[in-house]
From TrEMBL:
Compositional bias of kind Polar residues: 162-176
Domain of life of the native organism: Eukaryota
Name this polypeptide is given: TRAF-interacting protein with FHA domain-containing protein A
TM helices/strands, residue ranges: none
Keywords: Cytoplasm, Immunity, Innate immunity
Annotated family: Belongs to the TIFA family.
GO biological-process terms attached to the record: innate immune response; positive regulation of canonical NF-kappaB signal transduction
A Pfam family recorded for this sequence: FHA
Domain FHA span(s) in chain numbering: 48-121
Region annotation Disordered: where it falls in the sequence: 162-184
Cell location: Cytoplasm
Length: 184
């Protein structure tokens, strides 16, 4: 047998691609501690934390408006499934975390969609999961966006646009939906 036939089967690795944007990133350099463009291995049992406290967080954002621990990501596998997922949890008591259109308060968590935008304050992070098979670790691959992610991707804004063109602010006064007869 050749060495090729005897070689161990190559295992693919789940990779979480994250593209970061902030309107003041050039002036304030809040991403200077992030390692862009290089894949980094993370043990599967580690909880990955993002925030400004370098003693606790793996990924530091150098901004006093960011919580000491802003949010965390946990790699896991659902019971009776071979698929791997990430769970995102808001760890900030002051700032809500928006994942696509879902608002997370303090200690709220959800499964991270395969492709989504994470927002808090003026931060926008595009997260994309590349599937893999490894059970021991996953990888992160960080990128820096040149412009706003929400505008670049032509994603809908977080505020719904009514069909009649009337601003939703006048409807926010009513607590419940109001039914109107078509003939009126």
């Amino acid at each position: 047998m050749s060495s090729f036939e005897e070689a161990e089967t190559e295992e693919t690795v789940t990779c979480l691609h994250m593209t970061f944007y902030h309107p003041c990133q050039k002036e304030k350099m809040m991403f200077r501690c992030l390692n862009f463009g290089k894949r980094e291995q993370v043990r599967a049992d580690e909880m990955v934390k993002f925030g400004r406290d370098s003693n606790i967080c793996c990924y530091n954002l150098m901004d006093t408006r960011v919580s000491r621990i802003q949010f965390s990501l946990q790699f896991y596998r659902k019971l009776n499934s071979s698929e791997y997922f990430f769970e995102i949890k808001n760890l900030s008591k002051r700032t809500k975390l928006i994942v696509d259109q879902t608002e997370l308060g303090y200690l709220n968590k959800i499964d991270l969609p395969w492709k989504c935008i994470i927002c808090f304050g003026n931060y926008q992070i595009l997260a994309e999961i590349q599937e893999g098979e490894s059970v021991d670790y996953f990888e992160t691959h960080l990128h820096l966006a040149e412009g706003p992610i929400l505008q670049e991707r032509s994603l809908p804004s977080l505020q719904p646009t009514p069909e009649n063109g009337i601003s939703s602010s006048i409807f926010s006064q009513n607590k419940s939906p109001m039914e109107i007869d078509e003939n009126e």
